[in-house]
Every structure is written in C-alpha cells, then in structure tokens.
Amino acid sequence: MFYDHQQIEKKWQKYWEDNQTYKTSNNTDKPKFYVLDMFPYPSGAGLHVGHPLGYIASDIYARYKRHQGFNVLHPVGYDSFGLPAEQYAIQTGQHPAITTEENINRYEEQLRKIGFSFDWSREVRTSDASYYKWTQWIFIKLYDSWYNKNTDKAEAIDSLIQHFEEKGTEGLNANQNDELNFTAEEWKNASDLDKEDILLNYRLAYRAETTVNWCPALGTVLANDEVKDGKSERGGFPVFQKKMMQWSMRISAYSERLLQGLNTLDWPQPLKDSQEYWIGKSQGAQVQFQVEGHDEVVEVFTTRPDTIFGATFMVLAPENPLVETITTDAQKVEVDTYIEETSKKTERDRMADVKNVSGAFTGSYAVNPFSNEKMPIYISDYVLMGYGTGAVMAVPAHDERDHRFAKKFNLEIKKVVDTEEDVQEKSFDSKDSVCVNSDFLNGLHYNDAKAKIISEIETKGIGHGTTNYRQRDAIFSRQRYWGEPVPIYYKDGMPYTLPASALPLELPEVEKYLPTEDGDPPLGNAKEFAWDELNQKVVATDLIDDKTIFPLELSTMPGWAGSSWYFLRYMDPNDDEAFVKKELADYWGQVDLYIGGSEHATGHLLYSRFWNMFLKDRGYISHDEPFQKLINQGMILGMSAFVYRIDGTNQYVSKNLAKDYQTQQIHVDVSLLKGTSDELDTEAFKAWRPDYANAEFILEDGKYITDREVEKMSKSKYNVVNPDDICEEYGADGLRLYEMFLGPLEQSKPWNTQGLSGVYGFLKKFWNLYFNGDVFEVSDEEPTKAEYKVLHTLIKKVVYDIENFSFNTSVSSFMIAVNELQKIKCNKRNILEPLAVIISPYAPHICEELWSLLGHNTSIEFEKFPVLNENYLVEDEIEYPVSVNGKMKFKISLSAQLSAKEVEDLVISNEKMQQILEGKTPKKIIVVPHRIVNIVI
To answer: How far is CA 936 from the centre of its chain?
Structure first.
C-alpha cells in the first residue's frame, strides 16, 4: 500500500490542533513529569535541520512518559527580546515587535510541521507585556531584598531597615558593596536621601559604577558571552572596557549555594565544571601592603599566603583606582597608554590570554610586611579588578604567570618552597613541599604554614583569612530599545521602584532606535516616558519637573532577564494575579528533564538558578533548583560545498584539477548541487549571484565536482538544510527518526540527506506490515512464540534506550524488529497494536494513522506502553553448530534445557555425526552450552 506521508501528517497535525491533544491539565491525580527545551530566540532565518535535534529527543521522552501514565508538561515559548530584531529596526525602521511576530509565526509553522507534542496553549513570549510585567515584578522584589549571611538567604529590605533602627550596623552580617559602620542613632538622623543611598549598598538589585563591555557601534553594554576577541559577536564591532553607572544583580551573594547546589543535580560533568570554575571559590588571606611614600595601602587576596616571603613585586589591574594615585609623573604616559590598550580587551579575553605578557611600571613601591623589602608596583591586564581586590602579590618562583612577568621585566625571583628545580628558569608550584627562605615558616608544610602565616597576618592587624569567589555581580542594564523597561524612576538622583499596580511599564514608541544625540539609550527618544508620582501613571517626557513628574530609567533589561524564570510561568501562563500560583509551583516543582546547548553553561543556567533560589528564599516557590536533569545535545553539522576560483580570473576549476592552479576556495550553496551528488549545477551557479553570471568552468569528465567539508551548519557557510524540504520529501516522521538515528544525542554529527532514504524505506516497510497489497489486513489470531519474542525483545531494548537517552539504538531496533516480522509475515493484532505504540514517540503521525486503521477512535498518545514479559525471551531451543577438527559440519536443534552431557550424547548419536565418525571414537568433545559443540577426531 502506498505510504502517503504528506496526507497522513497534515491530517494528524490538524487533529492534534483541533482536539488540543497535548493540552496539559493542572487538576489531576496523575504523577507529574516536566519536560522542557531551552526556548528559542526566533531569528529571521527560521529553523535549519540542526535546530530540532534536542526538541525531537525531548518530544520522544515526553510522549513516552504520557504512555507511562504521567501528567506531562511539555510547553513551548520564545525568548523574543534580542539584539538582532533591534539591529534590523535600526537598518529598516521596522518595529522589532513586527519583525519578532513574523519570525515567531515562521518558527511555529516549522515546529508544528515536525509534529511536536507541545502544549501550545501555554506559549509564552518574553516580549509580551503580560509576561514582562512579572519580570519587572521580580526585579522589584530583588530591589526590595537584601542577603542576610546569618540566615543564609534573601530577606525583605524592611527587616534590614528594622536592624538599622535598632542596632545600626552592629551585628549585621550582610552581602554589600562597601563595609559601612553607623549607629542606630546616626541612621535615624540621616535624611531620606542618605537612607536610600545606604540601602543601595545592600539591595540585591542595585545601581553602582561598574566596568562594562561597551560597544559604541551598537550603542550598548554587552555581556562577556556576547564578545569575542575584543569584538561584538553580532556585527564584529570593537568593544571597550568602560566605567558606567549600571544596574547589577547581587548573584555573588549566592556563590556558595550555587556551588553546593551542583552536587544535587544530574547534569553533564563538563557543564558542572564550567559553573564551578566560573564561580571560582578559593580560600586564602586578605593582606595589606603599605605603598612607600603614600598613605594608601594595596590590599591583595592570595590563596598562597605561605609564599609571602617570596613576593618580590606587585601587579595591579589597570582599572584599579589606586593606579592614578600612585603613578609617578615620569611613568604617567606609559601607564595611560597601557590602560587605553587594555580597555579594548574584555575580561574574558584577558583571562584566556595566558601566553602574552605585558605591563607597565607605576614608578611606586610597596613594602613586603614580612621581609620589609621594596616591591615595585606594576599594572598588567592579567589582573582583573573584579576578582579579589584587583591586585596581586607576585611570587614568580612559584607561579607560572608571575614567573613569565618577572623574566620579561627582569624582576627578582626568590625561592620560598623547597625544590631541586632551578626556579630562575621555571616556576615550581607545589603544596607538597616545605617552606624555605621564609623566616619563621621554614620547614613547615603547606597547611601548617598557611595557618601560621594567617595567624601572624591577623596579629599584625594587616589582614585576615578569607574565602573568595571569582564570580562577580551580573550587570543588568543594556543601553538598547528592545528589552524589558526597568521599573525605576529617579527623584533627586535616587532610584525608586514603580508600584506593582503600575506594572507592566510598557515599552514606549520611539521614532528611532539609536541612542539620543546626548548619548542616552534609545528610550531617551520616547515622547511618553515619564512618571507622574501623584497620579501613578506614565506621562509625556516634556512634563518632567522633578517635583511630581520624574524621569524613568532609560536602560532596558538584558537578554537573560526573561529567560531566568520562564520555566515557572509555563506552570501558570495566564495568571494576572501572580507570576505562578504557589500550589501550581509546588505541584510541577522542578523541570525533570531539560535539554539544550552547552553554550548556556555560565549564562542562562547560572542566572536561572540564582533567580530560582531567590524566589524560594522569599517564599514564592518551594524548590531550590530549577532543572533536575539536564542534557546537552550535540550539533548537527553541515556538509559544506566549495568551488575553486583561479586567482585573478572568473574561471572555476573542478576539485581534482585544482592542484594544478593557484586557486581560492569559495563556499557555494549546497542547493546548487545536482540531487545528492557533489556535482555543481553550473547554470544554477551562474544564476545564483551577479558576480558569477559570466563564470567559466574547467571540468573533469564533463562535470564540475565540488569539494566537500563538514562544518558548523550556518547561513554564512551556505550549508543549511531546511527541515521544511525534508518534511516535504521524506515526512516529519522520517526527519525525526533520521535525526535520532544519526548518533548519540550528546555528540556532534554530520548531516547527510542521502541517509534519509534508509529511514524512509523503514517507514514504508513498517506501514506495509499492516497491509496485504492495498488492503488493510490485521488478523486476530493468537501470535506464535517467535512473534511474541520479536515484540518483547523490542520492548526490552526500547525501554532501556529511552530511559538512558540512547535514541539512536532504538531506531536500529525498530528496523530489526520490522524486518523480522516482515520475514515471518506477521500481521497479528496482538503484535502490531503494541508495535505502533512503541514506535509512536519517534514517529507519531504514521502510528496515529495505523492506530486509527486498527479501529480506535482515540489518539494513540495516551495508550499504556507495552509491558515486558521476560518469559517470551527464554529460548526453547538452541541451534548448535557442530564443528569437527575446526570445520563446521552441520547444525542441530536441541532443547535449551539440556545439560552439556545430554547435548554431547545427542550429537554423538546423531546420524550425520555417525557418518563422519565412521566408527571411530572422538579424542575430545567440548560443549559450550547454548553456543557450539567442538569435536576432535
């Protein structure tokens, strides 16, 4: 029977939509299971075949869990704020909302075509005002909170104010920007403005001067992961380090909890390692060094205070405020030039560049508090202001980077850890040796020396033992239009939050999306964007009088704001009264399975964990962590095609002749190849772009053969394959099966359209099991043991594979089972009905159609998954190969229950064996039970 995938898939996609098959109920006695994909940013290019890989895997698992009787939440939505739509608006004037809507419609059309079992009724978009109202609400809650180290959680700012009123800062143990000291009396006498300023020092969302990645061309601050090699990832524009007043989130307060929480999560170890490194916990000492001839001290954090006697120079971060104070006139030009150069590098670039050594001498010296020796003070880009104190004591004998610096600038290298190695040539970093040349530390091992020196540091009153974290607070401002407005207005220069009743603070209309002529963010172009405090509403900006009408914050929130809590909104997407009802958050709890790319390790995944922990602290949800199990899917790589252009000409030489010419390799669109071959359609190539219209070709055997190479699939490499085309030719079920069949989910693998024919052939075979010619024909006859064995072998394998996310081996098992059933001409209902259920998570459309043909009037989706019966897998008979003197002579079928001796007797008495023996007695008989019989004569 002809397998018409197009008709079948359209029919069932319409059925699922009309009947809301996948709509999830919150009112149920069933156990819950929450399956989620990292939600996509809707780009203009739409999906290519690499994008659905993770979605297909999560969809298979969601469907499998429904078959097991779980109430499955499997929603979809869009991370719809973002820079690309804004850049397009700048270029064309089209509002980002229009571009985003068009892109989402395209994505949705493509996703529906692939047959995902999403609950579309729960769709969220971060750029919808009904959604970002709650993002703004969470921001206000963060603003109205502080972190109490004694209770180890966030608390309402009111409790901090109460502490100040009763005790001032006495006994306060809080995360803060600066350590403040004042009495209750001083607090009470402070002006309202001063009180607000003090509270900003403790709030979890606060405004402070921060060093940021500033991109003038884009007119915005960029996150570290949006910058590569000193340029913006989007557009490749130069990025500079710049100090600006910015909103920040006090994620650093959660560093220890974020670190410890990793132990409770079933995540890939490399991802955990990334977060652990990013958080960067280290234990050591904070030590002060006096600057000679100045009142200033240089404070350093060191993990190796036991090596302080070997500290021979100091290095400050170029942006350290001390630099300006201590730099001598003679060194000012050199230092200023170096600071300018460093501003062009991001912190991430500076951390990654371990090979290059550079720096500038400030002209000043510090004094080593233990050796009393002078230590020249340098600046260098390998020291970061945000980590520790923005200064290091350099111990070149025992730190590789310090050693390279000392060699470059000819500085003293002093051994203080015992070793036979020549520390003048190479640093020796060990915690296993003892201290030398270190006065009272001599002969002590690492732990004892560390404890003793910290004690001495504290006795001298120049520092203390401490724990430090590399993770810095997250910058929360972006100077761009297309993002969530920050619900803040300014009175007397001080920030105040809008009342919750005024939310959402909606994005205003602007005439242009670029910063204003005064350098303000694009929201500065809005005509209706001021806060009327008296009437509690947004009014025209020209009414601002700083008496009752005040300016609103002009920055918008970063791209990660909306994605830091979206998994909670899916639980209760249409609630106007709360971001999620507590009882629904308690029912759905954590995401049980989260699938997405590893590139989000230190961005989205950290911020989501931070916001989740905060919301738990404040009592809105009950679970510590958002995502219990996480899988990083690999990439599907493209098979790029290249032509060879002879230098200085418009001639193109075929691949195997190119070695005879000086050529340039150029990407060409894979759609210009003939069918699935490597041959270029030369006429299509000439029509592709105007500069190729007059192309000439040097052919081999009358053909132009392109070169091919596996690369990342992307528009710029012209190797993108559109899933719509695959669904058209091979069906969505073919695409789903093939993407799983390509290899293990976590690995990257190359796409090859030719491979689809094998999967499509399987689907046709599977379809035809249910037909006799063109007639649907399924028998109610009881299956044979052999037929049951095929089915239950498959059940055992598929259950194991799905639960271990080995989807590729399941597809192989489907093919084997269908081939075996075809061979034995099985058309029994008791085999073919469960077979359709087993395959349906992978290929839902064809299985729905077969289920319907089998006489069912409900969807296959909620049928119970077939249960394994091991009895069908027990062998009744074993076919033993009989080998004589190393050569296989014949096979004999015997009962699987026979002992080795019984097998031996039956083989020897067999008529064929008797003919071979010709009356002789075998020298040796070896029976390998259930495998083989070896006879030596």
So the answer is: 62
